[in-house]
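Job type: complex structure
Entries:
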Amino acid sequence: MDIIIIYLPHTNCLFYLMVDHFGFNIDRTFKQRYLIADNYWKEDGGSILFYTGNEGDIIWFCNNTGFMWDIAEEMKAMLVFAEHRYYGESLPFGADSFSDSRHLNFLTTEQALADFAKLIRYLKRTIPGARNQPVIALGGSYGGMLAAWFRMKYPHLVVGALASSAPIWQFNDLVPCDIFMKIVTTDFSQSGPNCSESIRRSWDAINRLAKKGPGLRWLSEALHLCTPLTKSQDVQRLKDWISETWVNVAMVDYPYESNFLQPLPAWPVKVVCQYFKYSNVPDTVMVQNIFQALNVYYNYSGQAKCLNVSETATSSLGVLGWSYQACTEMVMPTCSDGVDDMFEPHSWNMKEYSDDCFKQWGVRPRPSWIPTMYGGKNISSHTNIIFSNGELDPWSGGGVTKDITDTLLAIVIPNGAHHLDLRASNALDPVSVQLTRSLEVKYMKQWISDFYVRLRKMN
Amino acid sequence: MDIIIIYLPHTNCLFYLMVDHFGFNIDRTFKQRYLIADNYWKEDGGSILFYTGNEGDIIWFCNNTGFMWDIAEEMKAMLVFAEHRYYGESLPFGADSFSDSRHLNFLTTEQALADFAKLIRYLKRTIPGARNQPVIALGGSYGGMLAAWFRMKYPHLVVGALASSAPIWQFNDLVPCDIFMKIVTTDFSQSGPNCSESIRRSWDAINRLAKKGPGLRWLSEALHLCTPLTKSQDVQRLKDWISETWVNVAMVDYPYESNFLQPLPAWPVKVVCQYFKYSNVPDTVMVQNIFQALNVYYNYSGQAKCLNVSETATSSLGVLGWSYQACTEMVMPTCSDGVDDMFEPHSWNMKEYSDDCFKQWGVRPRPSWIPTMYGGKNISSHTNIIFSNGELDPWSGGGVTKDITDTLLAIVIPNGAHHLDLRASNALDPVSVQLTRSLEVKYMKQWISDFYVRLRKMN
């Protein structure tokens, strides 16, 4: 059941980096991990495809970015996967890295981009034949934002960027905060009759049951929870966890069996929706349906003995680091109203969010910083970035889905979920993603050939 | 004698900024000073000219950037002069700002550019009519580098930059380290017969005299030093101070009486060279000539009672802050060989430089960081930057003196010294600088009209 992808051998490497690129008082270094594969690399006319690692173990991203492996030969490319600081094994202060806000102080996008810059310069300096080769940044999701921002801030180091499912506009008031949950809802309403309507009603079913005498125990048993609900706050946590599950299923609604956040069947939203065909059912039946639906996501293997409310995805993602980033720079407002979406109404409350962050990490978010730094919607002076977005992906709401200029291109993939285009080619891929990938290769080849034309002119 | 420039009234303002834009552990703010003048500003079709302050008091830069005042009406421009953190009155930790490397940790170009970015966003948000106006960054010298880098890193905030006398390539091995002193030498050799040759010989005259019994006392008296030389290291300091003086005179070799680094006559290098007509003179005569020449720079007012070896320029420059910056990011290698230039041979020794920095500030320079961050010579993907350089200016050696693309433009000003074009128009200005300024205005107007065309298209 588990999908095991075996890629060409790659080498695990380490590179010493400054913990603080932007200050000189702390003169400490740490080891960044990166993976490198040069089986198809050609010195003559080749290229370097550089994955700008995001919030997790780089090996996991490497194994879920089959696109780069698929095109390596055609692009005569060396593949490099750079791990993001504070994730995987690239911990600036080892086990202490997450101990407090002082140790976490160097976990920012700016530091991460500077890491990538130093690594690229190092690789060009030390790998014979690499110096005069074009580098392209690629990334998905947060890694896609980093790829785009890297091209914006370090255009001298990369000739272009493929930013897949990169919600660079999910900040401040650049897009409405309810756009994310609306897209999740659309996915569900298109994947089965009454599906989103049933889920919209399911919250009250849970609420009503929770209020009854033995309701918490009954809910815990009906949902096979590993840790039973004991107090009323647990019910909110339960609903948050279920909401996040539906969001995740929407994100990974891939057309084939896959194992990204969890092992899942093909088109998992459709499978989930099979349990939500009827919105007018007794509350107990509704909860039993929820349990069946949750099992699609948490128990596709059939091995799970109970469901754990504190987990929603693979442990390869660095939840601690991301929680800190969400509390500092990466403030991405979301909200729901229960009318245009299938979730309980939940407004965006910056004050509350900030207070929670302060409680958890001792820091306060700066929600307008990312648009100040990276330009918000005003990015038209940059060049050579492809923004690809799957139409099914809730993150596409904060993504660039229309061409900005003739070198800042948007590709929307109907039937595509979260960075589907970066995944390995699959027989079940819709034509739309196949076309997307060929278009991406076409543009990347253009950047590469433009680079070599300029290089020849200079020599 | 003192040139007093009285500009239109401007308002001194303060803006609260984060001490650390790139970390969240220190949640402290400080007050940045900026000057604003809107007498000629028009809401309709106007612009904002934003001076990216450099290493000194912003009022002093404001008074030495008459060009902006001269063109304000024609450009319907609001003028903003932003003080650089750690200079003038913009001290993040008040009197403690320079106490140690911990307090100095936030003195970097990246933090300064982020300050400018926040200020521009703030002005656009709070000044009615400013929101939809194009901003142009202007700066000279280090401020010119900041202007260019600001356009490179924040093109969403400024439509272009005028970077006057900005030696963005005086880093690492981007240009030969001896280019700077060679240009100084050329200035002197072109400003009078035997001038550079005399200076080249003057060092040994000093050395020979210093070795004699009463030599130090004699030198101290002959040069009217405020603090007599007492040990042999003092002689090296003396020569360094004299060298720096000739460098400064070359920098401010303006065609009219001026008061930038010091009050000076027109064409001060020519005036200095009047005392260096004869290279074959006895050592004592040579030293008396040096004294006369030094007086041109240090005593044009005729008021100085003695010469102070520890000062070379106006106190409006922030020497402490700059010394720290030179020991961290702003490592600009210079060297001399005494053959192709008129100075004593002095090689560039990075190890020694780094050790000195560590002794003085407890930090070590990172000489390759600026090219990593700002692209070194590989900046062709940027647009709308004018690099102007005076041919007499030693800093032009590290500047951009040839067009890179049709929107990255270089203007070389024959007979121009350090950012002459940014100074107020003067009846004695050579035609070259008059032409330069009209060209600069032409390009800036183009950026502004392009901006308004885009704006109209969007609405």
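Summary: The two ends of chain A are 54 Å apart (CA to CA). The interface with chain B takes residues 18, 21-27, 101-102, 104-106, 108, 110-111, 114, 117-118, 121, 153-156, 328-329, 362-364, 366, 368-369, 372-373, 375-376, 378-383, 454 of chain A (CB under 8 Å).
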